Structures
1.
Amino acid sequence: MSTLVTLDEVKTYLGKTGTDDDLLIASVASNASAMAERDTGRIFAVASNVTLLYSTDGQRAITIHDHPYNDTTRVIRFNGAVLTEGTNVWFLQDRRNPSVAVVVQLAPFTPEWFVHNFNWFDANMDSPRYLARITSGMPNDLEIAGTVGHPVTPPDVKQAVLELASWLYWRAKGGASSMDVTLTGTEVDVSLLPMAYQVMVRNWKVLTAVAGV
């Protein structure tokens, strides 16, 4: 997994210039990034060629992991059939970051959505049997393959991960003690997660319908 903060960024935040603790700092940068994604249920770091499986449970819209709102490499399959974005599947922009989508919609919500299709009568789209074919309760019925993550890490997420990495560093340096002292002589309480990180988790947390990778 790509880290959301680099070794140099954490060192600058900590005010460290030497290389003595580089291994520890690189470790806490990785751990902080993993914690941020685990605690929020999001994918912030960008990765390509990723396939995720979701169970729709017959719903027309479900929450998914972070996918770029626009992705020309993306392939969506529902019950094995390839879907076409803008025709029978839609990715909805995230209100926190419009460049990504965390909700996918598989059918319009309008009561007579089928009338927008010129072939609705011949295709018998107004039949309950047709609706049953485009919904599903099967496990892992939705597959999304392509890029995941945010093109640019949101500033509040990056700042929170920097503070968390710093907290993890001082916690490791402090051993069993719940307090440590920074390079400038400031005491740090390492018994509680940084407030900025807690706020970020509350702001970004989602529950996805992911079934597997």
2.
Amino acid sequence: MLDTLTRLSDSQARSSSLLPGWTIGHVVTHLARNADSHVRLLSAAERGEVTDQYEGGAAGRAAAIEAGAGRAAAALVADLRDSIAALEDKWHTASEVAWQGRGRGVTGEYSMTTLPFRRWGEVEIHHRDLGLGYTSNDWPDDFVRIELARLKAEWASRQPMGMTELPASVLALGPAERVAWLTGRLDVEGTPPAGIFA
């Protein structure tokens, strides 16, 4: 992802991403603040506390993204690089107590042991959302396999009893395209959106 952003220009940073209403600057800022939020969660868990992922909750998250989205490309990328370095350092230095702790996201509490995969998902999905040439077909096979199983289970849990298989039109797609549909990033003609993140 950082390689993709190496030549990011100021005009590109202000241009639309593949996420409705977000510029590339919004996506890059979100990825930086997401890394910060994981450091925040692990630091709280280290102290035996359960805290919100983002200070100020969803509103605080949105405000931080909006505040940083309009910066120059160099500032955006430097911020992201620094936040990644801080998160990786936290992963390496966090104690067993921290990893056994819990944090609180929008959908409820979760174990700190899920953070590395959560971060991987944020990076892969939003790398695609930048719209700078990295597509769902570039997602690593192991990421697609794990994420597809997780999202299929999430989708099935929201369906009427017994409706646990994906629509035939979606099953006809490749695995990465199915993940894209399940995350609301691919429209399939004649098939309603997955609706997981609605």
3.
Amino acid sequence: MEKTDYIEECSQCGYRKLRNKNGNCGRYLAHDGFPAKCTSFWAGIKRKAVDVYSGIFVGSMKAKWTLNYLDLYAGPGKYFDRSTGQLLDSSALIALKYDYNRIILNDLDNENYDALFFRTNDDKDRISIFNVDANKIESEIAKYMGTGTLSFCFLDPSNMNDLSFETVKAISKGRRVDFLINFAFGMDFRRFKHMSERKLSSYDGFFGTNRWRAIVQKFENGDIQSLGKAILDLYFDQLESIDYLRPNDSIMHLTSYRVHNSKKTLLYYLILASKHSRGNEFFAKIRPYVEQQQELFNRPN
């Protein structure tokens, strides 16, 4: 496979056939000889959110706390942006710019784990890399999250039902953890009637309840935006049950951000969950940068 940091024909590649099962580009390796994820502009929105939030988080809290960054679905650390053909650092490597005391990265895929290990080799003293199911990692990382620590945890599963609410609960129990979560609201809910019981149960796991089923049935013939808001409200209810602040309607827009494709179809929400009002204040500060990233994609050529 060719090694490169730019793919001229990236946007015309027919990626659905050429992308590997783990989501990485099936035609090219990055210039360092390791794989890169095949994705599009929305990866830039997420990396921008992690970048700006880390700057505010570390800048404001470094003198008071031992700071951790956790990225539990980290991928290989780099990605090819199909909208530009560029090879870019993803969130896992973006975090290296900041003065976190401990950076915890994880990916279940062996290829991604090897890429992360190589790409973080110059900063090994403060990095721990795991190759496990993110839903089983809490016991592995507990030693880094004791008294006096404050953590920022990015959860970016490829499918929302790959993440269990019990994982969020376990990681945060008795700890100070801010979460940035890719609430990957997709079209699965439009196929609710055809879901297998196994898939239904996996979504029960994501929400920590089966109440989402009644919500999807209620909005089955409604617009996707209303359905998205309703199930997001349920998720915030669940977060509130484990001591996270539930934003009221007047500040909901400050703690969740809708990401759309160029056709204005809702792809996912980026949501912040914090036990302290400062977390909401920080997210409000990063929102303009995230919006700017979305606008760059939607700008006519």
4.
Amino acid sequence: MSTRPNLLLILCHDLGRHLPAYGVATVTCPALDRLASESFVATHAFSTAPQCSPSRASLFTGRYPHCTGMMGLTHCGWDLHPSERHLAGVLREAGYDCALAGIQHETQRPAEMGYELLTSAHTDVAPYHSRLMAHAVADTATAWLADPRRQTRPFYLQVGFEEAHRLPGHPAGGFGFGPDSRAGVMIPAYLQDTPEARQDFADFQGALSVLDRAVGRLLVALANAGLAERTLVVFTTDHGIPFPRAKCSLMDAGLETALLVRGPGITPRRSDALVSNLDLFETVLDLLGVACPRGVQGQSFAGVLRGAADSHRELVFGEMTYHDYFDPRRCVRTRTHKLIANFTVAPFFMDPSQAWQRRTRPRHPVDPALSYHPLLELYDPERDPLEERNLAPDPAAASVLRRLCKTLADWMHSTDDPLLRGVPVSAFHCQALEALGLSGGRAAARGGGSRWGHDND
């Protein structure tokens, strides 16, 4: 029997913190409620990006998206630089059996990352009618956990659920499951509370219920195999919920993530320590006793998980460059303030609803179709948690603004942000040059993704 800790990392889409463990009582998630009661619950965990591929790149490499090459979505041609080290590859070299069940969206080359591919859908660009459902992912993962070999060798199982992503190509921008409003619905205060929004959130909660049942099956399988006591379980998501002013936005609602950690030596408690999903890479390696590769930009918070420390970071950084379109933004958040720098005059927020007729609308700005990014945005998340009052023009906030501008600029320089050199060339730009027989294709940016169109992630 192996004495080294195992790792089960469960990653879902678009959840944010929309769970009872984070105060959303209308969501019915008994399995995740139970897991939260047994776990370290991070109440101030944030992603490095409000979109799938860049955020996941950080989670699995411990590096900022623009440092990994992931400045957009994998199915839009972006990919990790060949030199990037994936968590699975590091653990495989350390003697772990590594496997992926379900979807991933951090690379176009999943077979090269270091894990065995257990399912056929390895990216989440399939149309809604061929979606890899949570129950199918759970079937595969539970069967793998039941294999007797799990008893003799340490393992890393990465389980990727597409839920609760909206379905690409779905005519109503829906979630593909029946609504769940058994306990009502909770509309975040930054959105308008309308009948259409309530239906949208009921459908969202329906997807979360499906996700919860699949997670419950995984945890039961782990216990039935006698592996629970020696397995580190991490449950998290890639970014905020798929609604306006959340996903695809650098507001807290776009960057906030659920993070539950259970396992040997972990003290179950709630913690407001400020953490970034960039930190998970080094943290899990620390907990498993595996050496961390050079060049990692995250910081281990294993001491916080073990109860030896109460605080971690003083600030976190976030970014977006390409998603539906070029919308370069960078931000820094402390306990008391958030600075967002906008590098184009794009619409105030990018719409993540994936529907021509969105059912949910923001409260601010009143007319988003006619509202655009200001140069700088400065918010006080303690006094203004909805981030609706921009303090950047306020003379009373001038000293805070100067300090955070310097902090953000220093970070951009220290990480060699491509925005310092102008507009980063998109993968599609390179592919277009190649299609026309012109020079400068893949030499300018790594291509190879979906060549003639894409679904919004």
